[in-house]
Design a protein that fits this description.
With about 150 residues, the protein is α+β, with helices and mostly antiparallel strands. It is about 30% helix and about 15% strand. It has five helices and four strands; from the N terminus they run αβββαβααα. The protein has a four-stranded mixed beta sheet with strand order 3-2-1-4. α2 runs parallel beside α4. It starts with a helix and ends with a helix. The mean pLDDT is about 80.
Length: about 150
Amino acid sequence: MWAAEYNEVFFTDESRICVQHHDGRIQVWRHRGERMLNSCVMHRHTGPAPGIMVWGGIGYHSRTPLVRIAGTLNSQRCNSEVLKPVFLPYIQGLATSIFRQDNVQPHVAHIVQRFFFNHQIEFLPWPARSPDLSPIENMWSMVAQRFT
């Protein structure tokens, strides 16, 4: 029975996707005494990797468009750049849906909770600081692979 209900759950999340992923591991073969020779040393960038922040949602039969988020997502920007223009029209187009999100700060802020209450959006209960077992995490891995 729960499998049919689970098909109605709609998952959303945001993720930072690195556009130039490099884990820094390189196989190097060198002879004794060559360790510090310029030809055996590879300089690498150690600062933040270039990337983009995106928001998206998936359901059993559907997905939202990806929304690029410039900078840091806070509750005001979540409301004005994601929930009103993308999330609301999308979820209203579904016959039935139960919304599931993680409990990060922008999602639990009063302004965002009021938005959900005013639009009568049903939630799947999810405890704070729980392991994130959402299937959308697998989707982020697939999206990130396309960028690298």
